[in-house]
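=== RUN LOG ===
request id: a7f3
mode: sequence -> structure
chains: 1
length: 436
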Amino acid sequence: MRPINVGLLGIGTVGGGTWSVLASNASEIRRRAGRAIRITRVADKAVKRARAIVGGEAEVLADAYKITRAPDIDIVVELIGGTRIARELVLDAIAHGKHVVTANKALLAKHGNRIFAAAQKAGVMVAFEAAVGGGIPIIKAVREGLTANRIEWIAGIINGTSNFILSEMRDKGLSFEAALADAQARGYAEADPTFDVEGVDAAHKLTILSALAFGVPMQFARAYTEGISRLTREDIRYAEELGYRIKLLGITRRARRGIELRVHPTLIPEKRLIANVEGVMNAILVKGDAVGPTMFYGAGAGSRPTASAVVADLVDVTRLITADPEQRVPHLAFQPDRLSKTPILPIGEVETAYYLRMRVLDRPGVLADITRILATCRISIDAMVQKEPVRGEERVDIVMLTHLALEKNVDAAIPRIERLRTVVGRVTRIRLEELL
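=== RESULT ===
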C-alpha cells in the first residue's frame, strides 16, 4: 500500500519535533497505521533553516499554497500558529480535498465552526489532539473514550506557564512579577506573556473542550477570562493557611440554565490531586455520569510531547482515509446535525463559592457591617480568619470563605463593602471549587 504523503506547514519547535518523531519512530508508526507516513514537502519562510532540519528528505518551499494545492499531498499539518493566515491555508487545504492536522487552539476556538463545516462538506477530517494539553490525549478521551458518558464538568490546569508562576509564588514566596521574570528567564514565558498570564490561552483550549463535552458550537467570545497577574503573595499564603491552593483553572460545566465557560484563579482543597500539580505540567479533570471523575496528567507543551499528539492524529487520519466517511468520528464528538443550542451562561449567573480578602481598620463593628452587606446580598459565610494586626498598624486583613453564591450577588456586595469607611482599598475575590 502506498505511503501517506504529508505536507508540513511550519517547522519551528513543534514542526521540528514532528519531523523528529516521525523519523525516529517510523517503523512503529507504520505498524500502527497500516502504511508508511512520510513528510514529503515542508513550507517555511525560513527556507535555509528548514532545509538544514530536513536535509534532502523533503522538498522545502516558501509558498505554503503549493502544498495545500498539491495533488499528491494527502494530509496537511498546520503548525504555523496565528489565526488569519492559518485559517486561509487550512480552508484552502480543505477546499482541495486534503485532510488537516493542526495544533492551533486559537484558530479552532475562533474559527472552528467554519472550518469543521467546510471539512464536513468536503468529506475530509480535521484532527486537533495537539491543540489542548500538549501530549495529553484529552481530545480523544473526551470525544471517544468517554463517549458513553453524559459529561457533567471539566476543570483543568491547561496553561503550564501560569501554573509554573503560581508554583514559584507558593514555594518561594515570590511576588507575581518576580515569578514571571523567572519563567521568562527559563524560557517558559514569552517576552509578552499576556495570553498565558491573563488566561487567554487557557480560554482557547477550554472552548474546544466545552464544545466536545457538551455538543455545542465553539463560542470563545462567550468565555469569561481572568488571569493571575493581580494575585499577591498574601493570597497564596492565606489560601494555604485555610487548606487550599490557588490554580488558574479552566472550568466548563452543565448548569441548570446553560453551560459555564470560565477561566480564572481558583481555590482548590489541597488534598485534591489537581491541587498538587506543580511547575509547567498540565492536568485535566473530567467528570462523567457513568465513569465518575477521571484525571489526565502530563506535559502540556514542548517540542516532542506536542509532536506526539500531532503524529497520533496523523495515524488516526491515515486509518480513516479508507473508512466510510459517514462513519467517521465527528469533529466535535456529536453528529453535526445534533449540535445543541444550550446557551453559555454569563459569568453573573455562575454559582460557586468565594474567597474574599479585605484590609480594614481595626475598629469595633467593622465585621458586623461587612456581614450585614453580605447577608443583604444573599451571601453566607462558611469560614473566616481575622489576621493579627502588625504592631503599630491600624489595619488588619480579614479573609472570608463563602458558601455557594451567585456571581452577580457577589458583584453587588463588593462595591458596597469597598465604600465602607473602615475598608481600605479593594476587596480581593477568588472563586473556590471543591471539584467533587
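=== NOTES ===
The first strand starts at residue 4 and ends at 9.
The two ends are 50 Å apart (CA to CA).
=== END ===
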